[in-house]
Amino acid sequence: MTDTLPSAAPQPLEKEDDGYFRKGCNPLAQTGRSKLQNQRAALNQQILKAMRMRTGAENLLKAATNQKVREQVRLELSFLNSDLQMLKEELEGLNISVGVYQSTEEAFTIPLIPLGLKETKDVDFSVVLKDFILEHYSEDSYLYEDEIADLMDLRQACRTPSRDEAGVELLLSYFIQLGFVESRFFPPTRQMGILFTWYDSLTGVPVSQQNLLLEKASILFNIGALYTQIGTRCNRQTEAGLQSTVDAFQRAAGVLNYLKETFTHTPSYDMSPAMLSVLVKMMLAQAQESTFEKICLSGIQNEFFVLVKVAQEAAKVGEVYRQLYMAMNQEPVKENIPYSWASLACVKAHHYEALAHYFTATLLIDHQLKPGSDEDHQEKCLSQLYDHMPEGMTPLATLKNVHQRQRLGKSHLCRAVTHHEESVREASLCKKLRNIEVLQEVLSAAHQRSRLKYTQLRDDYDLLSLIDVPDIISKTEREVEIIPPQFSKVTVTDFFQKLGPLSVFSANKRWTPPRSIHFTAEEGDLGFTLRGNSPVQVHFLDPYCSAAVAGAKEGDYIVSIQDVDCKWLTVSEVMKLLKSFGQNDIEMKVVSLLDATSSMHSKCATYSVGMQKTYSMICLAPDDEENTDKTKRISKKLSFLSWNTNKNRQKSASTLCLPSVGVRVVGPPVKKKLPSPFSLLTSDSSLY
């Protein structure tokens, strides 16, 4: 089945070098996967319409008192329920359209199950963010139109990511960017009025909330889904392709597991903890299956110890799929898991259990214990195959007795044929699986191979001599593990970094509006010292200096000097800027922090209507400013910060932790000047 169809778009637009689209996104690419995703989006809209009509009919049924009207409404409800069931079955058909996602290489392998991407509606950030910038940060919101447009463009690009590492990086960059946006614009005490709508990947039911957590969780789900599509796309006929498949499914499991542990109360069915647990099991099972294929890729030698290893590896795959099938049939996920997925899990469980018994039968029938053979090693391997030997048999006696080996081997073959027949039967019961030709071919070939070997050894007394063989103990040398998402590998720049360092200028802190302080440095002395990292704070303010008279206060953050933005400047850079004005009048704008909270934590609690407390991760570093200040000692007071006393200033060992400059001596009193009109604004009168 081909993966890429002829493109309907002009060819130049599809080239990454043109810069027409963001890297990792090309909405005009006409592939089988993108067309399938478009069908999913259209089905979501039809399901939404049907659900609204059903809700209206149910409300009418409750309100109507006329018996004839009630009968008509009940009839209409039956039609609506039927249509809704058909739409959901059609959506399930898209979820099992595994052939579209598989590698374009011809492969005689059982298809793997990918996850479809969640669909969403357009979101307009512009009005809300502009209002918040003006209200909370007291800045001209029109200066941030480009940044808001970049954020909206990035979100739009994430709706059509490419099925490769570039697409994953695109989604990861938006997820990290949402952490910045959450800290900048979403205070935990109120809703911002932005409605996020995402459609359930499995049921098509829309979920809408004024909560950024839904957006972040849905992006994480799509990252995991994209990894599954990358895994199914890999060429499973090469060792490198199989290794990429294993890696992709392990990473998908890691993202989904992170989503389950971090966002514990998501309102969507496909992101509920129970459903995510099942999806993580499914990803790990498919990774284990690909590991088994990698072991068998170069061929299986008909050698005793090799067959023991392969039998236990096959038993391991059958075991994980058996556990997956049982998990899929538990409440509450049973109603929302596609029936074809559960059927395929059952088929694979029987198939790989059959392979385990087939390889065990082969090692017993084809290999006889000869003089000089490693008798102890073979005995140990055979004893480790079973939890217990069949009644009346011991490992060493069975190896030495040709009749017992044949009898036990044929019993394993009979068990293998039984499992193969069950896998074929399960596949035939599901309409979706019946239409997957390669699955039917693989199951049929394995079944015929076991039957042929059993037929060659069969005699008339088998029904009386065959024994009930125990299960093969599962064992693997390559246990698959969850690979957690590595957000630090993606470098993301905060779109709104012009607002200032996030440790200070965030949504959960409040300040006074910027105050203009007009002052002069008399005889080279400012009348105050500076401290902290960016942004710099006023420290050790002389109450009689011109800056204090103009309204400056200790602890004020300097945001600009003579219209030069100082939010990201260090102490040395601010001092250099102040020095450049000499004895001239200096206009400095400062803000005062009103909140007592100062540090940003790695997790922040967010509440939403109808949702319990949920924790979301923000990839930000805590503010170490307070700790920095505590560790710094102010040296002997000699003079105010003078530009002629460079030797008294210490050089910072790191730009991340600049020392506080705090040396001063009270000089002669200066004349008190009339304060600036801005200095009359107190903290209490400037709340907003």
Short synopsis of the structure:
Residues 111-460 form the BRO1 domain. The protein has helices at 32-63, 67-95, 98-101, 126-136, 145-157, 165-185, 212-233, 239-262, 273-296, 304-328, 339-366, 375-385, 395-400, 402-429, 431-434, 437-457, 462-465, 546-549, 571-579, 625-631, and strands at residues 196-199, 206-209, 515-519, 529-531, 537-539, 557-561, 564-565, 586-591, 603-608, 611-617.
Describe the 3D structure.
- One of its GO terms (biological process) is glomerular filtration.
- Keywords: Coiled coil, Cytoplasm, Phosphoprotein.
- The chain has 688 residues and is of the alpha+beta class.
- Helices cover 48% and strands 7% of the residues.
- It is built from 20 helices and ten strands.
- The chain has helices spanning 32-63, 67-95, 98-101, 126-136, 145-157, 165-185, 212-233, 239-262, 273-296, 304-328, 339-366, 375-385, 395-400, 402-429, 431-434, 437-457, 462-465, 546-549, 571-579, 625-631, and strands at residues 196-199, 206-209, 515-519, 529-531, 537-539, 557-561, 564-565, 586-591, 603-608, 611-617.
- The strands form four sheets. Strands 3-8-6-7 form a four-stranded antiparallel sheet, with no helix packed on it. A two-stranded antiparallel sheet has the order 1-2. It has a two-stranded antiparallel sheet with strand order 4-5.
- Helix 6 (165-185) runs antiparallel to helix 7 (212-233), helix 9 packs antiparallel against helix 10 (304-328) and helix 11 (339-366) packs antiparallel against helix 14 (402-429).
- The longest helix has 32 residues, at 32-63.
- It is elongated, with a radius of gyration of 35 Å.
- The protein starts with 31 loop residues before the first helix and ends in a 57-residue tail after the last helix.
- Residues 1-19 and 596-688 have low confidence and may be disordered.
